[in-house]
Amino acid sequence: MALVNPLDPNHDQETKQLAEFFNETLGFCPNSVLTMQHRPAISKAFINLNKAVMANEGGVTSALKRMIAWVSSNATGCRYCQAHAIRAAERYGAEQEQLDNIWEYRTHPAFSEAERAALDFSLAASQVPNAVNAEIKGRLYQHWNEGEIVEMLGVISLFGYLNRWNDSMGTSIEDGAVESADQYLGKHGWEKGKHDGSRY
Q1: 82's torsion region: left (phi>0), alpha (psi -120 to 50) or beta?
Q2: 149-139-110-26 Cα dihedral, nearest 10 degrees
Q3: What is the pLDDT along the chain (200 residues), one digit of tens a residue?
Q4: How distant, in Å, are the alpha carbons of 52, 75, 85, 158 from that of 15?
Q5: Domains located in the chain, CATH noted
Q6: CA–CA separation, 176 and 45 (whole Å)
Q7: What PANTHER family does the annotation carry (predicted)?
Q8: C-alpha R_g of the chain
Q9: What CA–CA distance (Å, rounded) separates 6 from 178?
Q10: Rounded-to-integer distance, Cα 170 and Cα 68, Å
C-alpha cells in the first residue's frame, strides 16, 4: 500500500552512483531509496549515513550489525525492514543456525553471550519508552568497547529512521527480500502486510 511511488533508478545520477552500495548488501537498490529520490538530498544523505554506520571499525561484524537491525525492526513491527535485515545478514555471512533461529537468540546455542548482549541492547533501545538501563549497559561493557557500542547504536538509530519511513510509506517490498524473509521468518508468521505493492 505505497503512500508515494518510488522513482526510476536513473532519476538522480548521484543517488544511482551511491546506491551501488546496496547491490552488495541486498543485491538490488531498495524501493525506500528510490522513494527518497523525490528529494535527492535526502536519498544521498541517507546512503552516506548508511555507509558510515555499516563500516566495521571494531569487533561488531557486518552479520551482527544486520542481526541488530533485524531485532530493532522486529521490535517496531516493520516487515519491510525485517526482510531487508535478514537478507543482508544472510549475504554478510551470518551462520545458518543463527539465521534459522534469530527469534530464539536469547536461548539458542548458536549465539554467544556477546551477541546476546548486543541484541538485547537493540531490543531495549528500539522500544517506546526506551528500555536501556544499567543492566543492559553492564552486559554491553563485559563484551564491547565504547566505539563498538556507538557502532551498534548507529545501526539501531538508522533502522529507527527506516522503520518509520518504510512502515509509514508502505514501501513495496522487493522479490529478493521476500524470498529471504519467507525462508527465515515465514515459519514465525512473517508476511508482506502493507508492503505488498498496492496503494493506500
Answers
A1: alpha
A2: -20
A3: 689 999 999 999 999 999 999 988 999 999 999 999 999 999 999 999 999 999 999 999 999 999 999 999 999 999 999 999 999 999 999 999 999 999 999 999 999 999 999 999 999 999 999 999 999 999 999 999 999 999 999 999 999 999 999 999 999 999 999 999 999 998 888 998 889 876 44
A4: 16, 30, 21, 18
A5: 10-54 (1.20.5), 59-194 (1.20.1290.10)
A6: 25
A7: CARBOXYMUCONOLACTONE DECARBOXYLASE-LIKE DOMAIN-CONTAINING PROTEIN, SI:CH211-175M2.5
A8: 16
A9: 18
A10: 22
| Collapsed DSSP state (helix, strand, coil) of residue 100 | helix
Contact 159, 74 (CB under 8 A): no
**E strand or H helix that includes residue 180:** helix 175-184
The residues, ordered by sequence, that sit 6+ positions from 38 with a Cβ below 8 Å of its Cβ are: 4, 7
- What contacts 34, CB < 8 A, 6 or more positions away? 6, 7, 8, 9, 11
Cell output for 159? 533502522
